[in-house]
């Protein structure tokens, strides 16, 4: 076979699989969009096979009417205007390429985006301000990959659940929930309902339990001071007293030197 130029549709479909490799990556992209929209509540609903239906609903600021014509269009984004903006966006946004929704459209059966902003007339399908993205028949355009994904659906659901728990540590004040649709049990579903001022320590207690969290200590690093603070008690304390003008503040939980191994089964998450 001689060398030939691929048709545009083939290029788009093949390129989309580099952006969205599996159901977990799709959910991650949608959650990132929700958090960039300043959401305080994100709900994920997904079918038991992790492919037939994937929906992420948030209560963020929604998509303005003037921007809706460009939703799901490749390389259309509100995060940057040109390469110069990359210098300022670090730490301010979880994504900026404008490829995720466009890729979902190329390799899925359908993508439906429902959104509402403050002051907009209430729609029957979305009464609250925010955005809901529903993807059906994910990987439909790639039957071989879809068949492979069906065999790994249980692993995908586990990855998505662990990912949401990791988001809870990163954004402890954001309400997160995962519901597996038509599942035989509720084992795969998960919910995190924090207080409005919840800390990483609070998240640890809710996610891994008090027994595990008591075996951990908080480590805080602030880039403006180039130093590390270590606190040994997880309830809210001096770990929260970082200076407001810090460029970056990194907080993590690590096992105490005398922690029992059996109590730190969640060490990869923490």
Can you walk me through this structure?
With 270 residues, the protein is of the alpha+beta class. It is 29% helix and 21% strand. The protein has helices at residues 8-19, 23-36, 86-89, 100-107, 143-151, 153-170, 200-208, 210-213; strands at 41-47, 53-58, 110-116, 130-136, 175-181, 190-192, 216-222, 227-231, 249-255. It has a 6-stranded mixed beta sheet. A 3-stranded antiparallel beta sheet has the order 8-7-9, with helices on one face. Strand 7 (216-222) and strand 8 form a beta hairpin. The longest helix has 18 residues, at 153-170. It is globular and about 65 Å long.
Provide the descriptors you would attach to this structure in a database record:
270 residues; single chain; 29% helix; 9 strands; alpha+beta
Helices and strands in order, then pairings?
Elements: H1 8-19, H2 23-36, E1 41-47, E2 53-58, H3 86-89, H4 100-107, E3 110-116, E4 130-136, H5 143-151, H6 153-170, E5 175-181, E6 190-192, H7 200-208, H8 210-213, E7 216-222, E8 227-231, E9 249-255
Parallel strand pairs: 1-5
Antiparallel strand pairs: 1-2, 2-4, 3-4, 5-6, 7-8, 7-9
Helix pairs in contact: 1-4, 2-6, 6-7
How would you summarize this macromolecular structure in one to three sentences?
With 270 residues, the protein is an alpha+beta fold. It has helices at residues 8-19, 23-36, 86-89, 100-107, 143-151, 153-170, 200-208, 210-213; strands at residues 41-47, 53-58, 110-116, 130-136, 175-181, 190-192, 216-222, 227-231, 249-255.
> What is the rounded Rg?
21 Å
Helix content: 25-40%
Counted by DSSP, the helix tally is: 8
Q: Summarize model confidence as the mean pLDDT.
A: 82
């Amino acid at each position: 076979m001689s060398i030939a130029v691929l048709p545009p549709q083939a290029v788009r479909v093949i390129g989309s699989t580099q952006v969205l490799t599996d159901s977990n990556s799709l959910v991650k992209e949608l959650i990132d969009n929700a958090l960039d929209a300043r959401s305080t509540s994100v709900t994920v609903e997904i079918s038991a096979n992790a492919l037939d239906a994937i929906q992420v609903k948030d209560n963020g600021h929604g998509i303005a009417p003037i921007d809706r014509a460009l939703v799901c269009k490749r390389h259309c984004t509100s995060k940057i205007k040109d390469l110069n903006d990359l210098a300022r966006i670090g730490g301010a946004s979880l994504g900026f390429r404008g490829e995720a929704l466009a890729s979902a459209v190329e390799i899925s059966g359908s993508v439906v985006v429902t959104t509402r902003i403050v002051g907009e007339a209430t729609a029957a399908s979305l009464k609250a301000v925010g955005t809901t993205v529903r993807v059906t028949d994910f990987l439909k355009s790639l039957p071989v990959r879809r068949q492979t994904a069906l065999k790994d659906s249980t692993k995908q659901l586990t990855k998505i659940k662990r990912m949401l728990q990791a988001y809870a540590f990163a954004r402890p004040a954001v309400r997160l929930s995962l519901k597996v649709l038509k599942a035989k049990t509720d084992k795969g579903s998960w919910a995190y309902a924090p207080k409005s001022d919840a800390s990483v320590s609070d998240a640890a207690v809710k996610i891994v339990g008090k027994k595990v969290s008591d075996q951990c200590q908080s480590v805080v690093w602030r880039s403006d001071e180039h130093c590390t603070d270590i606190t040994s008690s997880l309830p809210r304390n001096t770990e929260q007293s970082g200076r407001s003008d810090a460029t970056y503040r990194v907080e993590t939980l690590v096992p105490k030197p005398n922690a029992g191994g059996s109590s730190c089964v969640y060490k990869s998450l923490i």
